[in-house]
Design brief:
- Strands 1-2 form a two-stranded antiparallel ribbon.
- The two termini are about 30 Å apart.
- The protein has 7 helices and 2 strands; from the N terminus they run αααααβαβα.
Length: about 190
């Protein structure tokens, strides 16, 4: 597997992680459940294995550690994002007259953007067994059916989804109440 494809995939994912932490850092203090340093620690825990996996040609054991760290960090980010939403909702119900509407709006946009980015990473990690399995072709069947996969007339035959495709999937699933453009094919994809 070429180093450039692995590196590009990890660098894009690292950029998404940095955006998630930036959103956490700018959320109004009132809606934080944990201090900012906790988000920075989580960012380091996911980015260090990603970058090491991108730069170094490491063994299968290291890749399993990297994948476990990525999934652990993404699930934790999702849990904390849900907790931030619950804190904001509780504050809205319990203190409706004391809330600053602009601050509440910024908080809700931050939580929603965080949700889009977190699910982008989750879809990237789950589809076809993750980035390494996709690049090596070890898993044949996809978890999501992207329209480009079926468009042989306009798309190269070796097309595979990139981070922007997963970002678009994360955006549409967080926005629409209907099925999105990329249909889930497996049970685990449907549960996400």
């Amino acid at each position: 597997m070429p180093l450039t494809q692995r590196s590009a995939s990890r660098l894009e994912a690292s950029a998404i992680v940095i955006l998630i932490v930036a959103l956490i850092a700018v959320l109004p203090r009132r809606y934080h459940i944990l201090p900012n340093w906790f988000a920075y620690l989580g960012m380091a825990l996911i980015i260090v294995p990603m970058l090491a996996g991108a730069v170094l040609n490491l063994s299968g054991a290291w890749r399993r550690i990297e994948r476990a760290a990525e999934i652990f960090a993404v699930v934790n980010a999702l849990v904390f994002n849900v907790c931030n939403l619950l804190v904001a909702a509780y504050d809205l119900v319990e203190n409706p007259g004391k809330l600053d509407p602009v601050r509440l709006f910024y908080t809700s946009v931050g939580i929603w953007c965080g949700n889009v980015l977190i699910f982008t990473l989750l879809y990237w990690l789950v589809d076809r067994g993750g980035p390494d399995a996709r690049l090596s072709g070890t898993r044949r069947y996809p978890d999501f059916d992207f329209p480009a996969m079926d468009d042989v007339e306009h798309v190269p035959p070796d097309w595979h989804p990139g981070m922007v495709d997963y970002l678009f999937l994360g955006f549409t699933t967080s926005t629409a109440f209907s099925p999105t453009e990329a249909m889930p094919l497996t049970q685990r994809a449907k549960l996400l």
